[in-house]
Amino acid sequence: MSFKEELKKAFEGQNPPYLFVGSGFSKRYLASPSWGELLEMIRATLGDSYPQEKYIDPKVTPPDLPGYAEKMADDVKNLWWNSDRYSYIYGDNENRKIAAGDYGPLKQVACHVLSQDLSFPDILNGDFPETALTYETQKVLSDELELFQKINSPCLITTNYDSLIEKLLKYDVFVGQDDLILSHTQGVGEIYKIHGDINVPNSIVLTKSDYDRFKAHDKYLHAKILTIFAENPIVFLGYSLSDKNIQEIIRGIVDCIGGNQEKYNSFSSRMYIVDRPRGDSRPRIEPCEISLDGIIFKARKVYLNNYLDLFDVLVNDVKLQVPAKTMKFFVENLYDTFSNPQRLSSIFLRPIDEIVEEVNKGNGEKLIAGLTFSAPRNVGFGRGFQRMGADAVRDGFMSGRDSGWNVYEYIRYFLASNSGKWLPIHRYLNNISLQDFRSNISTEEAKILSAKVKDITVEKIKSVHIHVPAPLDGEYQSINQVVNLGAYKYEDNSGKKKSATVGNLGSIILKMDESKISEADLFKFISGNKDKLKKYELVYPKIICLYDYIKYAGNPVSQYLLNLQNK
Predict the structure, then answer these.
(1) pLDDT tens figures, 110-130
(2) By C-alpha distance, which of 57, 95, 177 is closest to 465?
(3) Cβ(196)–Cβ(111) below 8 Å
(4) Which of 171, 135, 170, 151 is nearest to 24 (CA)?
(5) What is the pLDDT of residues 438-450, one digit of tens each?
(6) Lower Cβ count inside 10 Å, N or C end of the chain?
(7) Which CATH number fits the domain 3-32+119-316, given the four candidates 1.10.3470, 3.40.50, 2.60.120, 3.30.1490?
(8) pTM (2 decimals)?
């Protein structure tokens, strides 16, 4: 039996697996740092006066990384507020306030460090960081990613901060446990980023205090994962058995099911941990044991030299029979239909046992069953914007297909959306009068909206992680001047010749003096490069917000919100 056949047999008779993705996955393709490497990179930003020995005992193994981050947070915070050490991140003094809270500066620095080397369009085009090629050829990595993009798994769970997975799969993203709990999730076509997102620095779980808070409020998460485990296999990708995150998940499961060994054994048939073979290089599946708090938890170890066979099986043999995004659309609409008394009153419901009885009588050809969901022109109805997602909202904004949108439904969608989504707002505020706004939006809603609107001003856009390669960084007098850089070749730090990408050009525009930006040229740049810009998730949403602000923020409602005192 070949290894692929062995994999197929292992998943046989089970639902399509959920993927639990860890840091090893991003490290493989992006050469992104491990947790310990990230902390060391942050420490390096402090300067030579802050040696590693100040924060971590080299004699303690494994090292206490949450404690390391906790101790370092105080020094980063002190330098953030009392020196100009990190001015390259926050810009001017006023923007220091974006790092609110005790651990805000540390997380801002962490996300800035991580954002410097995340070049998704390059890897999707087969241009991988040299450090990512330690074990594999570029061809193998490219083939793996091509397969991964075709995976039709119900959901993915990840502790990674970066945006690699959602870039590859285009699933809806939920950041942190609060987002997961408060949002109307469907359990299909979704990514759960349980440790936060690089685009929302304060969401990331990094310090000991963060982990303590996470563990104190993770009951819902463990219950959700337990439900998933009960019905589906789970494939852990990019983790090791000693990984703290796996151990905490298993500890939560152990707490939920108590001492029921039969249930432990049931879970063992659904839990797969992918690892590289050591010694014996044969790809294979073997039982393994995880000892945790005196409990022996069994699982299966999948030893692979690369991911090609695994991804091929996930794509062709154990996938959902309907695309995950399509299934999510139907699930959401079914919920909307059957939870809405007005819509439900127009539907004839027949008990399933009656239908089965008719079929058994040979009358099945007389039965027609079906549901159709016709979206009204006013897509703001109900959860319309949630179903559309942030990408479709931006497309509607750029194409002008947003003229029929309900402004107040959109405002409430904007209020409920994660702050890291960077959605346009001023065009829609421009369509209503200040009097009408005050009549439809409560004082408390206005205060919340004001805070969110103030977070996407030109100044705030410039204060977030905008990376421009040093040879391209400079003062530009017009967008046309920036566009002309598209033909420019420069050398990176390794001496490799590179061309300025659309992402580079967009980043430069984001950093430009507002007075030098023509709104017409900006719109032309975005609309003419939209498909390419979409690949740059740290640029595309922000540059749309920049255009929205420059073009429309002068209206009375926007000005009212920008000047509103939130205290």
Answers:
(1) 988 888 656 555 677 777 776
(2) 95
(3) no
(4) 135
(5) 888 888 889 989 9
(6) C
(7) 3.40.50
(8) 0.62
